[in-house]
Amino acid sequence: MTEGEAGMAQAVEPRRAASVERWQGESDVLVVGFGSAGVCAASQAARDGAEVLAFERAWQGGGTSAESTGQIYMGGGTPLQRACGFEDDPDEMAKYLEASCGPGADVAKIRLFSERSVEHFHWITDQGIRFDEDVVDYQVSTMPAPGKALSWTGSERAYPFCEIARPAPRGHNVNVDGTPSGELLMRTLIAGAQRAGVRVQPQSDVRRLIVENDGHVVGVEARIDGDLCCFRAHSAVVLATGGFVSNEEMLQRHAPELLRCGRPIAAETSDDGLGIQMGMAAGGETIRMGSACIVLGFAYGNRKNIRGILVNGRGQRYVNEDVYQSLHGEIALLRQDGDVYLIVDDTIYEPNPEDPELGGTTYPLLAVAETVEELEQELGMPDRSLTHTVNVYNENARRGEDPFFHKESCWLQALDTPPFAAIDLRVGKGPYSVFTLGGLRTDSSQQVQTSSGAPVPGLFAAGRTASGIPAQGYNSGLSLADCTFSGRVAGAAAAALRP
Ligand SMILES: Cc1cc2nc3c(=O)[nH]c(=O)nc-3n(C[C@H](O)[C@H](O)[C@H](O)COP(=O)(O)OP(=O)(O)OC[C@H]3O[C@@H](n4cnc5c(N)ncnc54)[C@H](O)[C@@H]3O)c2cc1C
Predict the structure, then answer these.
(1) Does the beta carbon of 68 lie inside 6 Å of ligand 1?
(2) Rounded to an integer, what distance in angstroms lies between the CA atom of residue 222 and that of residue 229?
(3) Interval between CA 36 and ligand 1 midpoint (Å)
(4) How many domains would you assign to the chain?
(5) How do residues 56-94 score in pLDDT, each as one tens digit?
(6) 325: domain range?
(7) Is 464 touching ligand 1 by the criterion CB < 6 Å?
(8) Do residues 61 and 197 both lie within one domain?
(9) Which residues are CB-contacts of 111 (< 8 A; sequence separation ≥ 6)?
(10) Average pLDDT for residues 377-395, to the nearest whole number?
(11) What number does the ligand 1 atom closest to the CA of 71 have?
């Protein structure tokens, strides 16, 4: 732990069990946070026979999960995939996730999730979630499609991933009358948890863990109605309080680049990093704290934008435009210093995209010109840089080829119809939104680990509080998939510790 981290951790230094005069309540398993990870942890633990008490800071559960679009990444041959005519198997799914969630992807977690994905689909639907089996978006390769039950929500069809694993759509979308709904997802999961017998303590803000002298986590201290109350866990505590994108100090320390994006994706009561800090103070290690989902949704509302080209400030293409939007965000921010532009011609540009607000997206128009040369000058790019890029791109596109970046042929078209335009995707101008992926290090049962790899006794973490399946790269739906699945794994392991 660095000096700074030690300082932060001290703020949430665990309380010694011996100092507790009165336990306000007790349960086998205590779950902190009632978003998708917490509710699934609680539900699974209760289904496995444990008595469960969940704490939620807000007046009701839901967290960021309830504000989400409700896409869950599942595959390996789910009934919905099969009903829609797609072949998939756990091995292909795992190969894709290993390639797209690296470098440093947690292979054991990916394998476990891929192997159990069909079973997870049934668990989710058993809670009451329905996916319409007759609707699928066959056409669109990269964007989530509102109203569709199954869609492509990653880079599966894009190079190089399409050569690594057989592509299949894996975004399972929870919809209400065709509108994506994380709210319905959470309402249904919460009702399932209540049916399983989970007790929820709303408006209770857990401030620190309670430990025995040997470091064993045995409870939590929560602020309820202004009072600090202690609760005892007979088996274990599960931390599921979200990530840390709303904690500026932690971002400054671990992921300063994200502060340039200025558009955190988080509910008001979530993602302040406190859960991660509590876990650290109890001896847990944090990993991949610099990694994040960085969405650069330049084609929401106008999918034709994928037919344009993305260039950096030197007028050079740097990526195939049909990879998924979070890979775009990562590459643009971290490898191109956030200095990127979308170049389109008149056949592509739409002044008022159909749905510019989806994902909070807008497309700032930076320059318009009758020729590419003039556009290049207006953008202040080096002489003949953009012109050369467009000429070469057009020549290849007319042959249906993209030998540099291998964009799928359905997105290839020459940019030759004036006027030409540059859409401003520089960080600070374009639509970048972020949430953190780093968090507590856990083993495959979601038990928190120390820096030496030893388990922290009695402590589990799930969802964005832990580093999970989306270790580095991200595909849409993977956070809710990881949260719901890691929550279940943590809940089962915590319940299994019952005396
Ligand atoms: C607009 C939007 C769209 C998105 N769409 C998708 C999508 O379609 N698919 C996808 O996979 N991901 C999506 N995401 C991201 C995803 O929603 C989150 O990463 C995920 O929901 C995090 O879940 P969680 O359980 O870890 O945290 P949360 O859902 O935020 O739950 C944490 C809970 O803990 C509570 N809490 C926090 N601290 C404490 C404390 N100290 N004591 C007690 N309670 C506490 C919070 O109030 C909250 O209820 C989207 C996010 C947004 C905002």
Answers:
(1) yes
(2) 5
(3) 7
(4) 3
(5) 999 999 999 999 989 999 999 999 999 888 999 999 999
(6) 298-430
(7) yes
(8) yes
(9) 90, 94
(10) 98
(11) 8
Closest CA to 282 of 228, 236, 227, 231: 236
Phi/psi for 366 (5° steps) reads -100, -40
Residues 323 and 468 in one domain: no
Q: Which one, of 174, 136, 204, lies nearest residue 36 by Cα?
A: 174
Q: What spacing in Å lies between the alpha carbon of 267 and ligand 1's midpoint? A: 7
Task: Round to the nearest angstrom and report the end-to-end CA distance of the chain.
Answer: 33
Residue 478, burial from CB neighbour count under 10 angstroms (0-12, 13-18, 19+): buried
| Cα-based torsion angle of the residue sequence 391, 397, 398, 403 in order, rounded to the nearest 10 degrees | 90
How does pLDDT run across 114-155, given as a tens digit for each residue? 999 999 999 999 999 988 765 565 544 444 455 568 888 899
Q: Domain holding 223: CATH number?
A: 3.50.50.60
77 and 189 share one domain: no
Which atom of ligand 1 is nearest the CA belonging to 359?
1
**Ligand 1 neighbourhood includes 34 CB (under 6 angstroms):** yes
Task: Please give the Cα distance from 469 to 328 (Å, whole number).
Answer: 19
Q: How do strand 217-224 and strand 439-440 relate by DSSP bridges? A: unpaired
Closest ligand 1 atom, residue 58 Cα: 47
With a cut of 60, say whether residue 286 has pLDDT above it. yes
